[in-house]
Amino acid sequence: MVVDVSGVGYDVFVPLSTFYGMGEPGAETALRIHTHVREDALQLFGFATALEQELFERLISVSGIGPKVALAVLSGIEPKELLRAIERGDLARLTAIPGVGKKTSERIVLELKDRLPRGSADAAPVAGDGDATPAPLQDDVISALVNLGYHRPLAEKAASSAVRVAPDAGFEHTLKQALRELAK
Prior knowledge:
Layout: E1 2-5, E2 8-13, H1 16-21, E3 32-37, E4 42-47, H2 50-60, H3 67-76, H4 79-88, H5 91-95, H6 102-112, H7 120-123, H8 134-147, H9 152-165, H10 171-183
Parallel strand pairs: 2-4
Antiparallel strand pairs: 1-2, 3-4
Helix pairs in contact: 2-3, 8-9, 8-10, 9-10
C-alpha cells in the first residue's frame, strides 16, 4: 500500500490482516513501521498491532526466513493462531500457509518456541480459560461471518464488538449486530 505522509508517498508492505483492517483509500491510518535495510534496498513493513510487528521481527530472526516470507506467514495465519501453533508445535497448521514448507515450519517452531512475545499466553487464550460463556458464541459468529465471505480479522473484530454490545444475546442477535458493525 502507499501511505501519504505530508505529501510524500511511501510504499509499505503490509500483511493481509492489516490491509483488510484499513479504511477506504484516502482515509487516515496509523501503522507501526519496521524499516528493513539491505545493501540494495530500503523497505518499509507496516503493521496494525504491536503483536503483528513483534511476530514479524521474531520471524525474520529465524535463519532462512526473510521479510517477504515473514509477511506471507502473517498473511496466512492470524497472530494469535500463529502463537498457538508455535506453542503446540503444530507443523501441519504452519505448512498449510502458502510458501511455508516442512523445513521452514520446523525451524520456526524450533527457534521461536522459547522466544514468543511476552504475554503470549494472554494474547492467545485457550478455550475454557477465564470467561468461557461468550467464547463459543463468538467463535460461532466468527465462523458464520467467514463463511459469508468476510476476512477473518474483520470477522473477529465485528464479533468481539457485537458480544461486548450485548453479552447475553443469542446467536442470531449477535450475528445481526456483527453485520451492523461490518456495515459501518
